[in-house]
Write a structure and sequence with these properties.
The structure is a homodimer. The first copy, chain A, is an alpha/beta fold. The first copy, chain A, has helices at about 20, 30-40, 55-65, 85-95, 100-110, 120, 155-165, 185-195, 225-240; strands spanning about 10-15, 45-50, 70-75, 95-100, 125, 130-135, 140-145, 150, 175-180, 205-210, 215-225, 250.
Amino acid sequence: MQVQESATPTACMIVIGNEILSGRTQDKNLAWIAKELGELGVPLREARVIPDNKQVIIDTVNEMRSKYSYVFTSGGIGPTHDDITTECIAAAFNVAVQRSPQAETILTAHYGKENLNAARLKMADIPAGASLIMNPVSAAPGFKLENVYVMAGVPSILQAMFAGIKHELKGGAKILSRSIAAYVTEGVLAEQLTAIQNTTGDIDIGSYPFMRQNKLGTSLVVRGTDQAQLDKVYGQIRSMLLSLTPEVIEDDIAA
Amino acid sequence: MQVQESATPTACMIVIGNEILSGRTQDKNLAWIAKELGELGVPLREARVIPDNKQVIIDTVNEMRSKYSYVFTSGGIGPTHDDITTECIAAAFNVAVQRSPQAETILTAHYGKENLNAARLKMADIPAGASLIMNPVSAAPGFKLENVYVMAGVPSILQAMFAGIKHELKGGAKILSRSIAAYVTEGVLAEQLTAIQNTTGDIDIGSYPFMRQNKLGTSLVVRGTDQAQLDKVYGQIRSMLLSLTPEVIEDDIAA
């Protein structure tokens, strides 16, 4: 019997690290991966930010990997005492951590045999059954186990790792979007916007207030998989905005 | 019988919004609130980013409010069709949404009676039993229901709302931290760092690799509630780093 694949694959991101929860480090991986996944037609449905705590990591990984097609983790795979992600993933899958000869070869080539100390060698240890995710930036690999992709937290490294695995992901239809903004507050446009949303079918309209130079405005984002339908709704929204204000900012991408 | 308060109050943040999960908007509220809470001695233990989906919001709020002392939400309390946070919080608590006369007075004063259309009046509707969180930026209030604080997603508004409620939060000991960085990779310092961590008691050491101008380095962050102990461990780490490199960056705060 062939297993039926879900029509729309889904993804979840688990950001692992006390430094994000203390506010010391501003996470930048979530927004980056979200955009990449959108391009691939794999919507990111949820993200969790969790501490460097063994049981929390294990429980979260197990909950997410049964819930979503793909799980991506960032952080905690380095050589120091607070890097516990690898052992937690192994524990979540109930497998041992073991030395990967392939990873050892990579690390030996990168550092030289004389510099490959015990701490660095620890980065060659991955869960049994996992395959490596290459790291062209600083050598120490991530790994993939079933539907869980374990990557570094440093954005440049995570991005290089993701570039190496994204061809493996099976996406649905690419999610397209267009955005338009104006210095009109949500309260002024809400009623007309609801009327448009009620007729748009599969096109989703998001309304996001912003403040720039102390002026309140609204960004309206249309999202869907059909370009023609998307452009039509965009046109309706543009006309609606121009009935309220003389100036709109087309295809505005500012957050 | 008096209910025993937990020694260390804890917090969770729920970021509500499709725009964060699509990568369109970079969340900035999590890091900001995390720092504020750290100052107040209320460690942020977890954050979740969830979509504008009724059942997901209800389930997440109910899970988090029983797990943590304080829950903070951002996003979804405006006047448009995709602002569904208020009705979801009410559903999570199994109470009705009702017009707040106080909120209506505030909105009338802000917009003028003639401009207070139905969409704007919707922002005066809050769950029964909730109290208002004032919004000195754009008037429409957030609200608090038991241990759940519901705030706007626009950072300047969220920050102004938080400023108005933070005096209510009962914190434990303030979490202090110091940070030092150097262009030494984690693999070089890991063993000595583990030796230091093994003797530091309640002081937690975090090790965070970074890349700046294409050079890899490590930030080491010591965190704890005892300033003298913190300074001692900081000194040990500083000496360790200076045994490996001639230059360190003291009290480095770059992410």
